[in-house]
Amino acid sequence: MRRNLDQRLHRQQSQAICRHLSKLPMLLKSQHIALYLSNDGEVNLYPLLTYLTDIGKNCYLPCLAPHRQRRLWFAPYRPGDRLTPNRFAIPEPRVSVRAMRTAQRVDLILMPLVAFDQLGNRLGMGGGYYDRSLAFLQQRQHWRRPRLMGTAFELQRLPLLPVAKWDIPMHALCTERGVLQFHK
User: Fold this and answer.
1) 141 vs 147: CA distance, rounded Å
2) pLDDT digits (tens, 9 = 90+) for 99-156
3) What is the pLDDT of residues 61-111, one digit of tens each?
4) DSSP secondary structure of the chain
5) Nearest to 150 by CA among 126, 178, 181, 174
6) CA 128, CA 174: separation in Å to the nearest integer?
7) Residue 141 phi/psi, 5° resolution?
8) Is position 146 within any domain?
């Protein structure tokens, strides 16, 4: 359904999501923010990325971790920086490994998803990259960062998703209708 969304509607709903996010205290208080570039019908966050860099935030894009660890690291990115396709043909910033950050060193991660439920569970693309990259959060009872926020269209909402022990829930989610906060 996400892939088949009319282009005009996709653009309008993506813009609405970016507007909601741009006013969100969780986002405005964060200095190091990971986003993603839209792929496969995902919410287009590029206008938000431009806004965040304009107001002095440090923005990052997910990259496949070196040495095929099946994890994500986050590379600094500003609009216009060079990108190179990774092995899945997803564009990544061209930076040295030393410039990248692990999830522990990011304040907020905006994550794409295939589906979500009212409890803050997300269904990703099935590779488990975000879950493996955020597995350290399962060991913490109280944690401040990174905060996890999904971005999706309302049509991706399901009543309840199955949850595996390795699934990492979100703190919040933003759709074209607004922000949902989840309390665990």
Assistant:
1) 14
2) 999 999 999 999 999 999 999 999 998 788 999 999 998 886 666 689 999 999 999 9
3) 999 987 767 899 999 999 999 999 998 899 999 999 999 999 999 999 999
4) --TTS-HHHHHHHHHHHHHHHHT-HHHHT-SEEE-----TT----HHHHHHHHHTT-EEEEEEEPGGG-S-EEEEE--TT--EEE-TTS-EEE---GGG-B-GGG-SEEEE--SEE-TTS-EE-SSS-HHHHHTGGGGG-SS--SSEEEEE--GGGB-S-----TT----SEEEETTEEEE---
5) 174
6) 21
7) -85, -40
8) yes
Domain-embedded: residue 2: no
Kindly report the average pLDDT of the chain as a whole number. 93
Q: What average pLDDT does range 16-34 have in this prediction? A: 97
24: CATH: 3.40.50.10420
- pTM of the shown model: 0.94
Find residue 76's DSSP bridge partners. Answer: 60
Amino acid at 39: N
Whether 83 is covered by a domain: the verdict is yes
Number of structural domains (the chain) is 1
